[in-house]
C-alpha cells in the first residue's frame, strides 16, 4: 500500500472540510472494498477520511412512514435490526448474505451505495424499494442515483449520509453468489409496494443495476413464483465473463426472482441456515 | 504517522505507526502477537480474524489507525477468564478440527463470534457452514471444524446454564 494520511471525522461537516483540504482524498467507510483496492495499489489516495464514527450516520430509525438507514450502518447491524427484520425482511436477508460475517461487521450501506459495484447487493434493494439516497446536500431517487459501473451522480466531495424508503408490503431477495468472491452473479430484489411490484437486478447488467419490468408485470397479476414460469429475460446488455455467459445470467435472473418471491411470501427459498436473532451475550 | 492507542488483550498499548499500517501488522510486528496470521492478504481467508470491540473482523483489511481507541482481543487471549483453554479451543482439539493449524486462530475467533451472534447452543450444521464462508482451511475439508464449533456451542450453553444456576 502506498503512503496515505488517515483522518477521523466526527461530523459530516468536518469530513467535507477535511476532504477540501486534501490533494487526492477518499472517504473511508467500512473499507472492505477501498482497503483491499489500496493494498493492490489500484487506488492510492493522499488522504483517507474515516466516516465510520459520525454519530449522525449511524443506525436505523423511522421518520413518519419512512425507514431511514444511516450511511455508516454496517451490513450486520442492518441484518439484525428489529425494524428492518419486521418491515423490510428482504433487505435484512440481503444484508445477511453480503460477503462473510467479518466483512458484514465492517462494511456499510453508505460505502456500498456510493461505490456502486455492479455486483454489489444493495443497489438492487434501493431501486426495488424506490429508495431515496440522502447526501450531505441533496436527496436523489435511487433510479437516478446509479448511473453505470462504479458510477453515481455523486459530486466530488459529496457524502452518502443515508438511505430512506417506505416499508414495502412484501420484500425478498434471491442471490446466486460467485463461488469464490461471494458477489452476486445475479441478485434479484423483489418489493411489493403500494404502487405495484418492483424488481431490480444486480450483478448481471453490463451497465450495472436495472429493473426487470417484464417480471414486474407478471408479478403484479399474480405475486407467486409460478407467475414467473416460462418468463424469459433478453440477454442483450447482460454481462458475460468466464463465470457465466449473458444467456446463463438471463436464466439466473428468472430463477433468483422466483427465490425472492418465495422468500417474500414467507417461504424458505434456498438456505437451511438460520437468521441471527440479534446479538446474544456469551 | 499516527499515534494509535488500543487495549489489546486487556493491556493498553500506544505506538506511533505509519498511517498505512494494517491492524494485523500492528499486532504482529509492534506487539509480537504472532498468533494472528496473514494468509491470503486479500480478505478472503480469515486467518487474521480478531475481535474488535467484541465483533470479529479481518485485521488484514483494517488500518491500525481505524482501530484507534478500540478494544482488540486476539487468539492469545481467547482463553482469558477460563481455567483452561476456551471451550472452542478444547473442542478443536477434541474433534481434530485442525491439521497444519495455520487457519486455526482465525477459525477459533470466528467460531467464538458465531456463538456470540446466535447464542450458545443455537447453532446447527447449515448455519455453521454458512457462517464459515469467510474462513478457508486447506487441510481438514471443514467437517471436523464444523463438528468442533457445534460441540463448543453446546458446551458453552451448558456452562452458561451452570453459571446462571450458580447465580440464582
Question: Strand-and-helix sequence of chain B, N→C?
Answer: EEHEEHEHHHH
* Oligomer kind: heterodimer
Helix content of chain A: 25-40%
Q: Indicate the proportion of strand residues of chain A.
A: 15-25%
Task: Profile the largest sheet of chain A.
Answer: 5 strands, antiparallel
CA radius of gyration of chain A: 18 Å
Classify the fold: give the CATH topology of the largest domain in chain A.
Answer: Uridine Diphospho-n-acetylenolpyruvylglucosamine Reductase, domain 3
Summarize the largest interface: chains and residue counts.
Answer: A-B, 38 and 43 residues
Figure out the total of helices of chain B.
Answer: 6
What is the highest CATH level, the class of the largest domain in chain A? Alpha Beta
The best one-word shape of chain A is globular
Number of strands of chain B: 5
Record the strand order, biggest sheet of chain B.
Answer: 2-1-5-3-4
Number of strands of chain A: 14
CATH-level-4 superfamily name of the largest domain in chain B: [2Fe-2S]-binding domain
Q: Approximately how much beta-strand content do the residues of chain B carry? A: 5-15%
Specify Rg of chain B, calculated over alpha carbons: 16 Å
Could you list the spans of chain B in which at least 5 consecutive residues all have pLDDT below 50?
none
Could you tell me the CATH topology label of the largest domain in chain B: DNA polymerase, domain 1
**Uncertain ranges of chain A:** 274-282
Descriptive tags:
heterodimer, A: 282 residues, Uridine Diphospho-n-acetylenolpyruvylglucosamine Reductase, domain 2, Uridine Diphospho-n-acetylenolpyruvylglucosamine Reductase, domain 3, five-stranded antiparallel beta sheet, 11 helices, 30% helix, globular, B: 168 residues, DNA polymerase, domain 1, 2 domains, five-stranded mixed beta sheet, 6 helices, FAD (chain A), FAD binding (chain A), FAD-bd_PCMH_sub2 (chain A), oxidoreductase (chain A), flavoprotein (chain A)
